[in-house]
Amino acid sequence: MTNRMARRTLLRSGVAMLTVLVFSLLILAFTGISSVSPAFGTSSIFNPGPHGLSELLYAYSSAAANNGSAFGGLSANTSWFNTTLGITMLFGRFFMIIPPLAIAGSLSRKKVVPESAGTFPVTNALFASLLVGVIVIVGALTFFPALSLGPIVEHFAMNHGQVF
User: How many CB atoms lie within 10 A of CB 119?
Assistant: First the structure.
């Protein structure tokens, strides 16, 4: 493998990770800022505690996924939420398209290489299971900590008679 081919492969991998991380970074960063700042986010939460975190997480997840809805206990009609939810929608809709297009452009210039003993087949069950496994693991590592602080804690508190 030449130095140039190695750089292109590394670039494609970096751009693919950018696609995965931008979505998570938007949601988690704005949720984190909104959950600790009374001037921005916490003054708009009517249900404190874990339910408030769930409200924030849902609002930003929904905005990044092109829906833009929020829980009923979140007053999202403030300057902070209008601006940050709008930025999240913009990046979630349009800036998520740029990295896959860059990968496609890079792959379109790649020369066709015949199959060899080192070729990994992408048409069998092993590839499908590896792909699904990576998606599940990355999704779980990204969002499980936030989910464990919100809905899971709220469920255990509700079982002990504490509601928010």
Answer: 9
Q: State mean pLDDT over 19-44.
A: 84
**Of residues 152, 148, 142, the one with CA closest to residue 26:** 142
Spatial CA neighbour of 56 closest among 78, 31, 25, 37: 31
At 100-116, the pLDDT tens digits run: 888 888 888 888 888 88
Backbone conformation region of residue 47, classed left if phi is above 0, alpha if psi is from -120 to 50, else beta: beta
Report the alpha-carbon distance of residue 47 to residue 164 in Å, rounded.
6
Q: Is the CB of residue 83 less than 8 Å from the CB of residue 101? A: no
**pTM of whole model > 0.70?**
yes
Q: How far is CA 22 from CA 49, 58, 82, in A?
A: 27, 17, 20
